[in-house]
Specification:
This is Calcium-binding EF-hand family protein. The protein is mainly α. It contains nine helices and three strands, in the order H-H-H-H-H-E-H-E-H-E-H-H. The longest helix has 21 residues.
């Protein structure tokens, strides 16, 4: 989880003022009591209201995010969660744990646009069932999957959505900025649903 925290912090530090503002709103929407720390209760309530994967609402996942072991999530730990949610980091389809490192994804599901199915390295190495309808030969590791996109873009997509990076020309950031605007437009609606004024 420490590596993901560093990645999230790098994106935050290189992001635009608008991207940082959106994250700050996300943080404030979790931190109901405004003490700049998110308790398990605040985390659990937020994740349930936002209908995130039930495997990401658990005490175990919260503890993984709580890198310093304080029992509460600080700014950087919530930033890690934000990155995880925005980048759609996978949950293992077999053991249901959050995958923090290399994993295998079903290329058949990926290419057809159906729901993604990923499996952690440990479960893939086990010769048991993958709990999936496609055979093992359709699975590739995440680095091979990324390389395949470079050679053959996804159908119906001109570019992948990537976070802001000053090394990417402005025209390559358009979809990411559009996604952020859509997210920002949804904030007031989510606030009404959640019964809070920020998100």
């Amino acid at each position: 989880m420490e590596a993901l925290r560093k990645v999230a912090l790098a994106y935050y530090n290189s992001g635009t003022d608008e991207e940082r503002r959106l994250f700050n709103q996300f943080f404030q929407s979790m931190d109901k009591d405004g003490n700049r720390r998110v308790s398990y209760r605040e985390f659990s309530d937020f994740m349930s209201l936002q209908a995130h994967d039930e495997n990401m609402r658990t005490r175990d996942f919260f503890n993984q995010l709580d890198i310093d072991g304080s029992g509460r999530l600080d700014f950087k730990e919530v930033l890690t969660l934000y990155y995880i949610l925005k980048s759609r980091r996978p949950i293992c389809g077999r053991c249901k744990i959050f995958i923090t490192n290399e994993y295998f994804a079903c290329m058949r599901c990926f290419e057809t646009g159906s729901a993604a199915y990923s499996i952690c390295l440990e479960c893939f190495g086990d010769k048991g069932s993958l709990n999936h309808n496609h055979v093992r030969s359709y699975f590739v590791d995440n680095f091979s999957l990324l390389e395949s996109l470079r050679k053959k873009p996804l159908p119906n997509h001109q570019r992948a959505i990537v976070p802001y990076n000053q090394n990417i020309p402005a025209e390559g950031r358009g979809l990411w900025q559009t996604a952020l605007k859509v997210f920002e437009a949804a904030l007031p609606i989510a606030g009404i649903v959640a019964g809070c004024s920020i998100m």
